[in-house]
Amino acid sequence: MGTILKSIMRWASVGLLLVVGWPAAAVMAEKPDPEPAELKAAAESMSLLDSSKAAPPQTEPGTQMSPKRRAEFEEAVKKGEAALAQAHGIFGEYHPDVSLALNNLGTLYSTLGQYKQAEQAYARALAIDRKLFGDDVLEIGSDLNNLATAYMAQQKYADAEPMLKQSLAVQEKLMGPQHPFLIVTLINLAASYTARHRPDDAEPLLMRVLQIREQTAGPEHVTVSQSLRQLAGVYIDEKKFDQAEPLLRRALVIDEKIMGPEHPNTAMTAFMLAKAVSGSGKYPEADGLFRRSIKIFETSLGPKDPQVAAVLDEYSMCLRRLGKIEDAKAAKIRAKQIRAAGKSKS
Fold this sequence. Notes:
CATH topology of the largest domain: Serine Threonine Protein Phosphatase 5, Tetratricopeptide repeat
Number of strands: 0
Radius of gyration: 21 Å
Number of domains: 2
């Protein structure tokens, strides 16, 4: 397997989901065959990290996972720790297989919300790869990104920023400024800025991601819709509703066409568009968009999902603006009930 492909498979972007609620998936490491049987068994256990099984955007890893799913990941951690010990016993500390095992283990720790352990695993992998390869290789770029996500998950944004900048510099040097390989780091760096209320720094990074995705995937790809939402989210936070609205209208068209009118992505875009048009004072249109978002989330995620509560909170403010005070109170009460039910289960 080539260096670029191995580096791509090393990537983790858990911190992104935690900071701004954007969809993200942890990606496991991969190494070429042949490999010891124990390491291969552990690698197979890592198939739990399939991004198609990721939690909804508002769900943090490890917090609302089903008991069965959590038990599966905990078992995968045990296998991953055994694989690391096996690799270390065979190769010693400073070997690529040990670094890869540490990155795999760090991703599993992050998925379970064990961010300090993830930080330690990623830091150790970075130290190994720096000694083996130096600073100007893709492995270092991915290691820096992974460690930064662990910092971000612990709200250590100032510590994450220089690592993400170093990661981006390595990738730009080796891959060029418009390569899709840069997207994860660009988004994570933007997320670190957004978390610290620095939208002017986040905006150009997200615009760059949008341009790369349009060029590589086409103007109507689902990742383009995701980028449109991310950029619009920055504008909404800045109360630049007139700039957010056209981006979200475009994203909604893409989601309806590609994902379908009843998909959670479509619901998320409708929700964000409702916030934008409500912010511009277009309350009747916002009312319909909020109701549509709630209906889709209830159908796809369940009526007691935290995302339903998030939409209900925003919807209650719109209802007040429309003079529907009793409806606004009912929406707020239901949102509180959903959250209370969620806390009682955790």
